[in-house]
Specification:
Elements: H1 3-13, H2 16-48, H3 53-103, H4 108-147, H5 149-196, H6 198-204, H7 207-230, H8 232-252, H9 254-259, H10 264-304, E1 327-334, E2 344-351, E3 356-360, H11 367-374, E4 382-387, E5 390-391, H12 395-398, E6 401-404, E7 413-414, H13 415-419, H14 429-439, H15 442-448, E8 454-455, H16 457-462, H17 465-477, E9 483-487, H18 495-506, E10 512-516, H19 520-525, E11 528-533, E12 536-540, H20 542-548, H21 550-558
Parallel strand pairs: 3-10, 3-11, 6-9, 9-10
Antiparallel strand pairs: 1-2, 1-4, 4-5, 7-8, 11-12
C-alpha cells in the first residue's frame, strides 16, 4: 500500500460517523432508482395492460413520489459530502502551512491557493460520482432481481466486465496523466524563459538552436498527449461493454425471457433500470474517476511529498580554530561617481570563518555593490575590505573567494570541464559525484548524456536559466576558495532547490557563505543577517532583527516566501 493510500484510509477511519450519515442519505436518494423500474412494471402489468387505468396512474404517482423523496436525499447528501470534504481540505492546508513555516517554503503560497483548492473540488466530485454509482447500481440490480432473476443474469455480467476493464486502466492512466502534466509544465517554463529573452536570442543568432531545443520539449509533450489520448479508448470500450451492451442484450434476449415467464412490464422496467440508472451512473463514474481521479492523485502526491534537502553537518565541538575572519569590512564607503550619493557609507562587518551571512534590503540599496567590493571588482572610496585577512584586491585574496553572479556562464565543451573549471589540478569522480548529489545536478547530468557528453551550441541554448545556475553553483562548490558569495545566484531555482544549494554551501567543509538574498527564506536559513537601509545597516540574527529593525519586519512581511523580482545594483557592475 502506498503512503498516499495509507493517508487516505487513516482520514476515512476517523470519520466513520460522516460516512454512515452519507450512506444513509444515499440510500434514501437511491429509493427513486428502485421504485422507477418497479412502478413502471406494475403500471403496465397490473394497470394499463390489464385495462385498469387508475391502477396504472397510481403506480406512476408512486414513481413521482420516489423522485421527490430522492430529491430530499440528494439535498442531504451534499451536506454530508461537505462534512467529509472540508476536513480533508483543512488537513491539507495545515500540512502546507506547517511545511511553509518549518522550511521557509516559497512554494507554499501556490499550493495553498491553487493545488489545495483543486484537490478539494476534485475530491468532492469523486465522492459524488463514486457514491452515486455504488448506490444506484445496488438499487437497480436489486430491482432487476425482484422483477425477474433471469433479467439480472442478462444485465450483471457485462456490467461487471465493463467495470473491471475500467478499473484496470486507472493506475496506468494516472501515470500517463502525471507524465503529461510534467511535460506540459516543462514546455510552459521553457516558453516563459525563451519569450523573456527573444531579443537576446535574435542578437546572438541562436534562433534555430533555441527553436530546436524548445521543439524537443514540445514533441515530448505531444507524445505524452497522444499516449494519454490512446488510454481513452479502453474507457470508451468499458462504457460500451458495461453500459450499452446490457441494453442490447435485453432487447436481443426479449423473446427468450418472455418465454420464461418475464412479463412485458418487467422487461420495460429492466430497460428503464439500464437506460435511466445504470448507464448514466457508469458514464459519470468513468468520466469523473478517469479524469478527476488521476488529477487528484497527481495533486495529492505534490501536496504530501516530503522534499528532502541535505542538512548542514553538525559543527565540531569546541571553539573555532584561531584565525582572521573570513570576511571583514571596516568604514566601507562607496559611491558610483564623485558627486553621487554613497551606496555604502561607513559599513562595518565581520563574518567568522565557517559563518553564513545573508544580505537583505530593498532593490537598489547596494547589496550587489557589496558583493562587487568583496569580490575585488570595485574599489572602495573609503575604508577597507579584507578576505581571509588579505586586502580584497590583492592577488592572494583571489584564491580565498569565489563569486557566483545572477547570470551564470556555461561554455562549450563538456559538463565535466564546466564543473572542474576552477580546479586546474582536476577533480576526482568521487568528489564530482558528491558535489552533484549535494546540489541536485543529477537529473540534468543524465539528460545531457553524462559528465563527458559534449555541450555544443544547441545543448547550451536548450539549458534553462535555472539549469545554468545549477552548473555554476556546482563549479563554485568544487572551488578551493573557502568564501563563496552568492549574488542572487539561485534566483531562477525553485525554493526547494534554492534551499538545497544554500544548505550544501553552508555545510561545505571549511567554507563560509555570503548570500545576497532575494527570498526571505534565505535569511531564515542564515546565522547572521545584514539588513541594508541606505546609510544604516544592522547585523544580527533573525529574532534580534525582528525586534530592532522596522525594515526587516517589513521585508519579512512582504517577502512571504514567494520569489520577488530580482533586485539589481544601483548601476551595472
Amino acid at each position: 500500500m502506498t503512503p498516499l493510500s495509507r493517508l487516505g484510509l487513516r482520514f476515512l477511519r476517523g470519520r466513520r460517523a460522516v460516512l454512515g450519515r452519507l450512506a444513509a442519505w444515499s440510500v434514501l436518494e437511491t429509493g427513486q432508482t428502485f421504485l422507477l423500474g418497479q412502478a413502471l412494471a406494475r403500471a403496465l402489468d397490473d394497470g394499463f395492460l390489464a385495462g385498469r387505468q387508475r391502477t396504472g396512474l397510481l403506480w406512476l404517482g408512486v414513481a413521482a413520489l420516489g423522485v421527490a423523496v430522492g430529491a430530499l436525499g440528494t439535498a442531504r447528501v451534499y451536506g454530508a459530502v461537505a462534512d467529509l470534504v472540508e476536513p480533508a481540505r483543512d488537513a491539507l492546508v495545515r500540512r502546507v502551512v506547517a511545511r511553509g513555516v518549518r522550511d521557509a517554503d516559497g512554494g507554499a503560497v501556490s499550493r495553498l491557493t491553487q493545488q489545495v483548492e483543486i484537490a478539494r473540488d476534485t475530491f468532492a466530485g469523486l465522492v459524488m460520482v463514486s457514491r452515486s454509482f455504488v448506490f444506484t447500481a445496488a438499487g437497480a440490480l436489486i430491482g432487476l432481481c425482484s422483477l425477474a432473476p433471469v433479467l439480472l443474469l442478462v444485465v450483471a455480467p457485462p456490467l461487471v466486465a465493463g467495470l473491471a476493464l475500467f478499473l484496470a486502466t486507472l493506475r496506468p492512466l494516472a501515470r500517463r496523466q502525471e507524465v503529461f502534466l510534467t511535460a506540459d509544465e516543462a514546455v510552459s517554463a521553457r516558453l516563459a524563459t525563451v519569450c523573456a529573452g527573444l531579443r537576446d536570442v535574435t542578437a546572438a543568432g541562436h534562433e534555430e538552436a533555441t527553436a530546436d531545443a524548445t521543439g524537443v520539449l514540445v514533441d515530448r509533450e505531444a507524445r505524452a498527449a497522444r499516449t494519454l489520448a490512446r488510454w481513452s479508448v479502453p474507457r470508451v470500450l468499458a462504457l460500451a461493454v458495461g453500459g450499452h451492451l446490457p441494453l442490447l442484450l435485453l432487447l436481443c434476449t426479449a423473446p427468450w425471457t418472455l418465454e420464461r415467464g418475464v412479463s412485458a412490464g418487467a422487461l420495460v422496467g429492466a430497460l428503464a433500470y439500464v437506460t435511466q440508472s445504470l448507464l448514466p451512473a457508469l458514464q459519470s463514474l468513468i468520466h469523473g474517476l478517469g479524469t478527476g481521479g488521476s488529477r487528484l492523485v497527481v495533486v495529492l502526491r505534490r501536496l504530501t511529498a516530503h522534499e528532502t534537502v541535505p542538512e548542514p553537518r553538525a559543527a565540531d565541538a569546541g571553539p573555532p580554530p584561531p584565525g582572521p575572519p573570513a570576511l571583514e569590512a571596516s568604514g566601507l564607503t562607496f559611491a558610483y561617481g564623485p558627486g553621487a550619493e554613497p551606496v555604502l557609507h561607513g559599513l562595518d562587518l565581520a563574518v567568522p570563518a565557517g559563518g553564513h551571512l545573508a544580505v537583505v534590503g530593498p532593490s537598489g540599496i547596494g547589496k550587489s555593490t557589496l558583493a562587487g567590493l568583496v569580490a575585488g571588482l570595485l574599489v572602495p572610496d573609503a575604508g577597507r575590505v579584507r578576505v581571509g585577512g588579505l586586502p580584497a584586491r590583492s592577488p592572494g585574496a583571489a584564491a580565498q573567494r569565489v563569486l557566483i553572479p545572477q547570470e551564470a556562464y556555461v561554455f562549450s565543451g563538456t559538463l565535466r570541464a564546466n564543473l572542474a573549471y576552477l580546479r586546474p589540478d582536476g577533480v576526482g569522480d568521487a568528489e564530482l559525484e558528491s558535489a552533484i548529489g549535494a546540489l541536485g545536478l543529477g537529473p540534468l547530468r543524465e539528460r545531457l548524456g553524462g559528465l563527458d557528453a559534449p555541450l555544443g551550441p544547441a545543448a547550451l541554448a536548450a539549458l534553462s536559466a535555472g539549469e545554468r545556475q545549477l552548473i555554476a553553483l556546482v563549479r563554485a562548490y568544487l572551488s578551493p576558495a573557502p568564501l563563496a558569495v552568492l549574488d542572487e545566484a539561485t534566483c531562477h531555482l525553485d525554493p526547494v532547490a534554492e534551499a538545497r544549494a544554500e544548505r550544501a554551501f553552508a555545510a561545505r567543509p571549511g567554507g563560509t557563505l555570503v548570500v545576497i538574498a532575494h527570498r526571505i527564506s534565505s535569511a531564515r536559513r542564515a546565522e547572521l543577517i545584514l539588513v541594508m537601509d541606505g546609510r544604516h545597516a544592522l547585523c544580527g540574527g533573525h529574532r534580534e532583527l525582528l525586534a530592532r529593525s522596522a525594515l526587516y519586519r517589513d521585508l519579512t512581511g512582504v517577502w512571504d516566501g514567494a520569489a520577488r523580482p530580482s533586485s539589481q545594483p544601483a548601476r551595472p557592475l
